[in-house]
Design brief:
Ubiquitin-like (UB roll), alpha+beta, 2 domains, five-stranded mixed β-sheet, Flavocytochrome B2, Chain A, domain 1, disordered N terminus
Amino acid sequence: MEGLDKRRQYFSKAEVAIHNVETDCWVSAFNRVYDVTRLVAAHKGLLTKPLIQNAGKDVSHWFDSRSYEVLTHIDQKSGLRVPYTPEGRFVHVSPGAVPTTSWNSDFEKEWWKDDNYIIGRLTMKSRNVRIINTLTGQKNTIQVCLEETLGDIQNRYLPFNAHASSYSWKYLGKPLDMLKTLAENGVQDDTAEFTRLSIQEDFYLPAIHLYFKDDLTVA
């Protein structure tokens, strides 16, 4: 489908969690997903240790939820308000009450306020959906994000079928609007009801059927 942005807008917690090493380091905070791999590479040393130790995890608890500033507390020795970093001071956090010549303040924005490190948002909820290619009979179950449009889901499906845009996407025989979400297309998420009834989530998955419609697109 032409015009669809192939950049990922939303990520599940599971997707963030796999980026959990120094050379592939993601964290999330207040539903924002950050790729701090370049930051870690540029600031090797103790200040990157908290980021590496929390790679793939949520670090919202490091910050004030209203100001997005690092949490602070009163230092018992100096009586001054200083950054509260129980896991260790990290990149772009001032040394607080103890002056040091190693403090490098040569940056425009702290990384958690810098849009250059934000690669998407953390989904409110993820769900599974089954996609069935009626031409080949291929069936795939993929995890998608609640906020994603069918166009976004189509992009997620591309590794399974590079020509996904050459198919009509339908649910219960009805064409789907690729600019709307699953819920907006009437594909409801029943996982909460399944949980209430103690039924396995994968007992029933909504199935989207793909119908071949035109010449193959260029892979």
